[in-house]
Give the backbone structure.
Amino acid sequence: MATELRLMLVDDHYLVRVGLSSVIALEPDMRVCAEAATGHQAIEHFRSDQPDVTLMDLRLPDLSGTEAIRTIRAEFPQARIIALSTFAGDEEIHMALEAGALAYLVKTVQPEELVDTIRKAAAGQRHVPLRLPDGNRAPRASNHHLRAGTPLPPNHAAYRCPPPAPSAGRPP
């Protein structure tokens, strides 16, 4: 890992990019080297800037983030990408990880977890949060040693959420 991590931010919402940049600016060993608002821009910026870690929104106006991840990883297998989304559905997580993302975070992530996940991704480690914004447990990949882009079987435990715990006072 380089002494300074170079990051690319990909999100079609300017204020989200500004917010991510603000968190990253507080870290002395990280800097934003590129920003993109579309999937096609992300691919072009990756080619020219080759960041250490890319934070990629999955819902972009021209090309899905998943498709951009797949395209970047086909050309640059060493690319380290964190998928970001407002939504946390099992299928979206599955598709992002299968396309080559090392990690998946929802946009409500706390700054500490964001920074920790960036460092993990830079080191080649997978990360999926334990809890989703709705309070349910997130799917967990038990095979953290798998390289990003290695397809997991569709019924793998990494893509299943356990049923929610029964509420107190209600029968299960």
